[in-house]
């Protein structure tokens, strides 16, 4: 269920492989995120664990941007 897009969200390595295959992969890639333990519905609110992970993840993104890391 969900098709190819669903697979890409579940497996970033597939998204990276596709980007590489079509020559759209930048020289450097940073993966930052948090994964929900369970998703009952698409628009369900984030769990407390995910909510706690958002600020540190966003901080890491801000640090990479401030360091001039290429997109």
Summarize this entry quickly.
This protein has 71 residues and is an all-alpha fold. It has helices spanning 3-10, 12-21, 48-66.
Which SSEs are present, and which pair or pack?
Blueprint: H1 3-10, H2 12-21, H3 48-66
Helix pairs in contact: 1-2
What does this protein structure show overall?
There is one protein chain. 0% of the residues are buried. The protein has helices at 3-10, 12-21, 48-66. Helix 1 crosses helix 2. Helices cover 52% and strands 0% of the residues. The mean pLDDT is 80.
Throw out a few tags for this protein:
mainly alpha, single chain, 0% strand
Strand content: under 5%
Please give the count of helices. 3
Distance between the termini: 31 Å
The succession of helices and strands, N to C, reads HHH
Secondary-structure-based class equals mainly alpha
Average pLDDT, rounded to a whole number, is 80
Biggest sheet layout:
none
How many strands?
0
Shape: flat
Enumerate the spans where pLDDT stays under 50 for 5 or more consecutive residues: none
- Rg over CA atoms: 15 Å
Helix content: 40-55%
